[in-house]
Specification:
376 residues, alpha/beta, binds zinc ion, eight-stranded parallel sheet
Length: 376
């Protein structure tokens, strides 16, 4: 049997955790569903297989009874710093690549502090829609917004970002089109009218697509990776438009081929389609996330098999998408190593690979591919 516990992971997509970690059961459960309706934490999360598995792991880790009440009491005894340090260290993390745009900054740990507590490196990405929203609220002139946005993206690498990220999948969809500047300007005027209390939720397709293309040009110039949310997400998502096949026009543009593209969240449930794209396009990579989407181990085995069956390991990268509580970053590392190990064992048994090759593939998925894609 392969033992992957010694391989320290690069979590290529995750988020900061909250400063306030004291939670009752409803608050804690709320972290473990993408559904926004209150009936889920109240009635359903405690009956989900992935949550039952997590509680058992936590009981072992905290050395307490297996009831949710006892487990939360044990974790609430620890101050947040200690909780983070214990869990992140136990996860054996080499690097966290964080999207600091969510949760909002004042509520959560800064990337640097998470790195200190986890005894690991913390890198960060720039979320494009957050930058767009800030500039559109700040400036009422379209040319000025486009110019400032272009400038901020053009020197992203110098400003310490190792990737860009887009959530267009759950705003207007992955079918990113090319629009004339006049159409984008009209869309900008509509977006300005949608500002409430100095806040904007950008969902204005010509404008959003137009600004994304500006970012793609700069990313290609800097050879800077762009992560795309694909598939599974909260109820904002129109799952039909989260299918990564919608990215075809962007993927086909030869002037964008120096921009590595990372399809996040194994494009769940479009896993085969996303892995297929990574197998066909030289600049497409496929993220295998082991905490979110919230699915059980059998489903994780399925998507890991699908990805490894079609895409080379040099196109696959481990992550957790951990957010809010450090149990997510920790549990994902346990799960990722165990699931990848089990699938590779199956492949050894099927005489597809030998043990040495399996070790090498595990290294690539858990850290090696990310090291080269993000130039860590
Ligand atoms: Zn995320």
């Amino acid at each position: 049997m392969l033992d992957l516990t010694g391989i320290s992971v690069v979590d290529n997509h995750c988020h900061p955790v909250l400063l306030d970690q004291r939670m009752d059961s409803l608050q804690f459960r709320r972290c473990f569903t993408e559904a926004t309706d209150p009936s889920f934490p109240e009635k359903h999360v405690a009956n989900a297989v992935y949550y039952l598995w997590l509680l058992r792991q936590m009981a072992t880790f905290y050395g307490c009874e297996r009831t949710e009440e006892d487990i939360l009491a044990a974790r609430n005894k620890l101050d947040a710093d200690t909780l983070l340090e214990h869990l992140l260290r136990a996860a054996n993390i080499d690097t966290l690549i964080l999207d600091p745009a969510y949760p909002p900054g004042p509520e959560c740990y800064a990337p640097e502090r998470m790195g200190q507590l986890g005894h690991c490196r913390a890198a960060k990405m720039l979320r494009l829609e957050t930058l767009m929203q800030r500039l559109i609220v700040e400036y009422d002139d379209f040319d000025e917004v486009a110019e400032r946005y272009s400038m901020e993206v053009s020197n992203a690498r110098e400003r310490g970002y190792c990737a860009l990220k887009s959530i267009v999948a759950y705003r207007t969809g992955l079918d990113i089109a090319e629009w004339h500047k006049d159409e984008a300007a009209t869309s900008f005027a509509e977006a300005r009218l949608a500002i409430r209390n100095e806040q904007l939720r950008i969902a204005h397709k010509p404008l959003l697509d137009y600004l994304l293309h500006i970012a793609f040009r700069h990313a290609a110039e800097q050879e800077l990776p762009v992560q795309f949310h694909t598939g599974y997400g909260d109820s904002d998502t129109d799952m039909r438009l989260g299918n990564p096949l919608h990215l075809r026009d962007v993927l086909e543009r030869s002037d964008y081929h120096s921009m590595p593209i990372v399809l996040l969240h194994e494009s769940y449930p479009y896993c085969q389609l996303g892995a297929y794209l990574a197998a066909i396009y030289p600049h497409v990579y496929f993220d295998l996330s082991y905490t979110i989407p919230f699915v059980d181990k059998l489903e994780m085995l399925a998507f890991t098999r699908q990805a490894l069956s079609v895409a080379p390991a040099s196109k696959l990268m481990y992550s957790t998408d951990g957010i809010n509580v450090p149990e997510m970053h920790w549990a994902g590392a346990l799960r990722g190593r165990s699931v990848i190990g089990q699938v590779l064992n199956e492949m050894i048994d099927a005489d597809e690979i030998d043990e040495e090759q399996a070790q090498h593939i595990a290294q690539q998925i858990l850290r090696g591919t990310a090291y080269s894609v993000y130039r860590l």
